[in-house]
Amino acid sequence: MSLFGSFGERVRQGLRRTRELMDEGLGAVLAIARPVDEAMLEELEETLIAADLGAAAAGAFVKRVQDEIRRGRAVTTQDVRASLHRFLEDSLAAAVPLALDAHPTVILMLGVNGAGKTTSTAKMAASLKADGRRVLMAAADTFRAAAIEQLQEWGRRIDVEVIHQAPGADPSAVVFDAVKAATSRDVDVLLVDTAGRLHTKSNLMDELAKLKRVLGRQLPGAPHESLMVLEAPTGQNGLEQARMFHAAVGLTGLVLTKLDGTAKGGIAVRIHQELAIPIKLVGVGEQIDDLQAFDPKTFVDALLGEQPEAG
């Protein structure tokens, strides 16, 4: 299955825990016979915050419902459910696909150690290859021998070549070699796996900014994507990490992983609202084909169930 294949059922299964939490909470708050009043809205706000939607988004939704009540539009709990669907879809905006028009397209993969960055890089490579593209990976995390070995092992498994140097080498030299190889071999997509040492270390951010400059000098317009891999269960810590990487490199999108391991899938809405960076891919499992292109409407349907009819 490629990045451009089916999203719905895989994500629905991945968001099962969040949906169960939402069903339980919303089922009690939005009982059919219950009046839509301030007490109900207060409980609703607490339920949404518990799903890690964030206080700002939850508060904004309650305000929207209050406005709709004043206009006579939200008069039943069913109306509120339908309004929640619309609000979440609006909050996530339209799907933003990967930019793959350049030849070669260079994708810089970013994130802290342990977020699943190297694995996500390999999953992307496998999906792009399955979609008929010629793919190359670069092991630019030279600070950890294990990171180079992990990417090489993935390369063997999915039959994608990995450009690398010895541990401790200059990451910029690896990137230089990788772009040269991608250009000479008529590669469609070059995926660059980068270091992910503690995000508060300024030397890492300086190194990543240098990598971006090297790419831009060697191949004008590169990197065409700067994607940060972020674990859904990390919540607020993940948001702070993303802010740091965005300030240093300028993120073009996010890869949200481990959605299947959290009961707080609402973090996707919070990330998009607070950072204004599109979520482009989501990870919903451990298999090679579990990385999926993000679709807001399908995501909201998986989060809440199919959209109900307003009363």
Low-confidence parts, pLDDT < 50 over ≥5 residues?
none
Radius of gyration: 21 Å
Structural class: alpha/beta
Largest sheet: 8 strands, mixed
Could you say what the CATH architecture of the domain at 105-251 is?
3-Layer(aba) Sandwich
Query: Could you tell me the strand content as a percent range?
Result: 5-15%
User: Briefly, what CATH class of the domain at 105-251?
Assistant: Alpha Beta
The residue-averaged pLDDT reads: 87
Helix content bin: 40-55%
Instruction: Let me know the CATH homologous superfamily of the domain at 105-251.
Output: P-loop containing nucleotide triphosphate hydrolases
Extended strand count: 8
* Fold-level CATH name of the domain at 105-251: Rossmann fold
Give helix and strand order, one letter per element, not per position: HHHHHEHEHEHEHEHEHEEH
Strand order of the largest sheet: 3-2-4-1-5-6-7-8
> Which of globular, elongated, flat, extended, rod-shaped describes the shape?
elongated
Q: Gap between N and C termini, in Å?
A: 39 Å
